[in-house]
Amino acid sequence: MKVLIADDSAVVRGLVARWIGEAGFTVVGTAANGRIALEMMARHDPDVVLLDIDMPELDGTQALPLLLARSPGLQVVMMSTLTTRNADISLKCLALGAVDYLAKPESNRGVTTSDAFRIELIERVRVFGAARARRRGPAPAALPGAPAAPAPLPPRPAAPIALRPRMRVAGPPKAFLIGSSTGGPRAVGEVLEKIGAATLRRLPVLIVQHMPPVFTAVFAEHLGARVGLPAAEGKADEPLQPGRIYVAPGGRHMRLHGGGGREPVIRLDDGPPVNFCRPAVDVLFQDAAALFGAATLSVILTGMGSDGTNGARSLVEAGGAVLAQDEATSTVWGMPGSVAKAGLAQAVLPLGELGPALRNLITGQGA
Predict the structure, then answer these.
(1) Which domains does the chain carry?
(2) Residue 274 pairs with which residues in a beta bridge?
(3) Is there a catalytic annotation at residue 307?
(4) Where is the Response regulatory domain (predicted)?
């Protein structure tokens, strides 16, 4: 697994290169700007590029399309500090083909002392490097006379996915929930766009996308512009309204409260992380199961880990419907795969088919 680091800070380049080497991966080069990164591409053909946004001569946004043009399928992770401007740029880069983003601490000292940043960075290199290796296919055949490599073990057959039929419930769903993480910004936008604003005006849309603060507010703005509906971070004590998109704010759990004749409202929670996440999908889904029961429709999209599985179980036990993205179209089949393997999904579908299926469930036409 070969990694190229492009960042204008020599401190960041040195630290990140050391971390990647200690994790067992190969750093094929470090570049102080996008121009040098492009020159290194031709010589080293990396699997993963860690690409800083702000660099001299050729910055990350300018270098990204050129890198992807030279190596289709290259896994590019954008890196930037937590500012509104950089959040906006990072999300635009995802639309241009970057696979993910990583928020950097604001100072070199912060980079040096942040265990969370180091762990997240190594995990992304591991996941996206493996994805690149799968896309490259098997290694080329050995040259004549070279010693034969040991025969690989046969792959284990994939366990069949058991789908759960949905209980027949009178009436349309009263809330639509989405849980997503790595690769989620693009996936969420596509799903909502294919459902369509006319259909989404029937019910509130609540989204937990694993993102840091600042990013979630910008993500909501992007969704609203793309779908044509009001979209913003959820606010404490805000009543749920049909046709509005509520995004869990970074660093806070988004919960629901109501029942007993009271209208449902959003509650924000600073409690401990759940599944190492805050906001967590499980927290929102479990509250929705208690509040809306069988009148809840949900989907789990691409993402690392298993956040959402316990919440999906609560929804299913309450009679709600859970759909999941399939492995082939997921950036990472962690969250949807966990739900699917647990037998909680009513359907496991490619990203392009989820929107129409969800639209049919919202309008009462079935999946």
Answers:
(1) 2-135 (3.40.50.2300), 175-363 (3.40.50.180)
(2) 277
(3) yes
(4) 2-119
**Which listed residue (210, 253, 282, 306) is catalytic?**
210
Please give the single-letter amino acid code of residue 36: I
- Going by C-alpha positions, the residue among 327, 333, 322 that lies closest to residue 350 is 327
The one catalytic residue among 80, 180, 181, 314: 181
* Average confidence (pLDDT) over 334-338: 97
Query: Annotated catalytic, 210?
Result: yes
Q: What is the 3-state secondary structure (H, E, C) of the chain?
A: CEEEEECCCHHHHHHHHHHHHHCCCEEEEEECCHHHHHHHHHHHCCCEEEEECCCCCCCHHHHHHHHHHHCCCCEEEEEEECCHHHHHHHHHHHHHCCCEEEEECCCHHHHHHCHHHHHHHHHHHHHHHHHHHHHHCCCCCCCCCCCCCCCCCCCCCCCCCCCCCCCCCCCCCCEEEEEECCCHHHHHHHHHHHHCHHHHCCCCEEEEECCCCCHHHHHHHHHHHHHCCCEEECCCCCECCCCCEEECCCCCEEEEEEECCEEEEEEEECCCCECCECCCHHHHHHHHHHHHHHHEEEEECCECCCCCHHHHHHHHHCCCEEEEECCCCCCCECHHHHHHHCCCCCEEECHHHHHHHHHHHHHCCCC
d(CA 220, CA 240): 16
What is the per-residue pLDDT across 245-259, written as a single tens digit (0 to 9) for each?
999 999 999 999 986
**CA atoms of 273 and 282, how far apart (whole Å):** 11
User: Are the C-beta atoms of 163 and 312 separated by less than 8 Å?
Assistant: no
Q: Which residue in 59, 287, 307, 326 is the catalytic one?
A: 307
Mean pLDDT of 268-291: 96
* pLDDT of residue 88 exceeding 90: yes
For residues 356 and 50, what is the distance between their CA atoms, to the nearest angstrom? Answer: 35
Given this model, what pLDDT does residue 162 score? 78
Q: What is the pLDDT of residues 38-78, one digit of tens each?
A: 999 989 999 999 999 999 999 999 999 999 999 988 999 99
Catalytic residue at 107?
Answer: no
